Amino acid sequence: MVFMRETVADNWQALRDIRLEALRDAPTAFGSTYEREVLRGEAHWRDRIARGGTFLAFVAEVPEVAATEPAGLIAGY
Fold first, then answer.
1. What is the pTM of this model?
2. Which stretch of DSSP H or E encloses residue 25?
């Protein structure tokens, strides 16, 4: 089962980490690059969250990933 929670300001590091991992994993799937995003600071990630529409996904059934650690991201526009 996958749980989704809308990001809040305190999730900025989790959002950054998941986004950077996704950019490394599938660089052509996004409108940005790892090289560009890795340079962005805390203010950028907090601003991105403040705009809304960004969710973190949590997978409960995967033993290696605790349900408290995000396993992916989802965005809606």
1. 0.79
2. helix 12-25
Q: Bridge partners of 54?
A: 75
Compute CA distances 11 → 29, 49, 57, 60, 69, whole Å: 23, 8, 12, 19, 11
**Residue keyed to tokens 């403040």:** 50
CB neighbours of 19 closer than 8 A, spacing ≥ 6?
A: 37, 73
For residue 4, give the nearest of 57, 44, 47, 49 by alpha carbon. 57
Count of other CB atoms within 10 angstroms of residue 13: 10
DSSP 11: G
Looking from the CA of 62 toward its CB, the CA atoms found within 13 Å total 14
> In whole angstroms, what separates CA 49 from the centre of its chain?
10
pLDDT in tens, 35-47: 999 999 999 999 9
Instruction: State the pairing for strand pair 2-6/72-75.
Output: unpaired
